[in-house]
Amino acid sequence: MTALINTIETLLCWTVLAPLARMNRQRRAARLERDAHDRERVSALLTAIVTRHADLLA
């Protein structure tokens, strides 16, 4: 389904709806970037917790 949506969005880039397709792609890219950044921060936080409190996990 995602491939179909991407194909339709690519086709829309060649119509008068190109600004809407571009805006949608920019929003999606920003959301994915935010998610990746959040994952990195959470991973670093969990690693720090595990190293500081490893005795509680045993």
Structure description:
With 58 residues, this protein is mainly alpha-helical. The chain has 3 helices and no strands.
In short:
It is built from three helices and no strands. It has 58 residues and is an all-alpha fold.
Write the layout of secondary structure elements.
Blueprint: H1 2-12, H2 18-52, H3 54-57
Largest sheet report = none
Helix and strand succession?
HHH
- Termini gap: 44 Å
Arithmetic mean pLDDT: 92
Number of DSSP strand runs: 0
The general outline is rod-shaped
Number of domain units: 1
The percentage helix is: over 70%
Helix-strand makeup class: mainly alpha
Radius of gyration, CA atoms, in whole angstroms? 20 Å
Indicate the proportion of strand residues. under 5%
Q: Helical element count?
A: 3
Runs in which pLDDT lies below 50 for 5 or more consecutive residues are none
Which tags fit this structure?
mainly alpha; 58 residues; single chain; 3 helices; 86% helix
